[in-house]
Design brief:
The complex is a heterodimer.
Chain A lengths: L2 E3 L3 E4 L5 E8 L9 E5 L6 E5 L3 E2 L7 E6 L4 E6 L8 E9 L2 E4 L3 E5 L1
Parallel strand pairs in A: 2-11
Antiparallel strand pairs in A: 1-3, 3-8, 4-5, 4-9, 5-6, 7-8, 9-10, 9-11
Chain B lengths: L2 E5 L3 E2 L5 E8 L8 E6 L5 E7 L6 E3 L7 E6 L4 E6 L8 E8 L6 E4 L3 E5 L2
Parallel strand pairs in B: 2-11
Antiparallel strand pairs in B: 1-3, 3-8, 4-5, 4-9, 5-6, 7-8, 9-10, 9-11
Amino acid sequence: NFMLTQPHSVSDSPGKTVTISCTATSGSIVSHFIQWYQHRPGGTPIIVIFEDTKRASGVPDRFSASIDGSSNSAFLTISGLKTEDEADYYCQSYDRDSWVFGGGTKLTVL
Amino acid sequence: EVQLVESGGTLVQPGGSLSLSCAASGFNFDDYSMHWVRQVPGKGLEWVSGVSWNSATVAYAESVRGRFTISRNNGGNFLYLQMTSLRVEDTAFYFCAKDVGHLRFPDHWGQGTLVTVSP
């Protein structure tokens, strides 16, 4: 089954740039559209990136994403970190009528 | 404005049954696939089940297949999840989510309803 794996946590200081990876197994990352969601405690997930690299409406351009076929991974990059970016981030895709989520990465802005 | 409001979560004993509902408004409900996603407190998101706009396609995570049934009422704008043979590990917040189209990805989520399975 197609699966997505993320690092458990990442952290950095305000103003810095952080990148979260999402690695696919049992399938090719380039054959599956990847979405990214921000989930703050107590809130609902908010879509940040859809179809690999497209920013959702209202998402600042500090958020960007990319796909790397050679590492079979997708990446979410957040530049100019702000304390409000602190949240859990999930990559997501769909495979054979099913949704697949990565395990989530906790971003801490120190 | 898209609104998804879940209800039905409660405490239930292992082996019991429970039905969740999701009331949808603010969009043409019968144009979109709908899904249930759950989150064990402190853990990640887990897709549970999805249903196409016309109920022709339904899909389940392996962890719930054979125990949970998803359905929808397009006339009343409701999504349902019938859960049977509940296990302690089914304890989670259950979110209703709207798909952007046909079994693709979520663009709106409800606030969730808590299901607790405990003796």
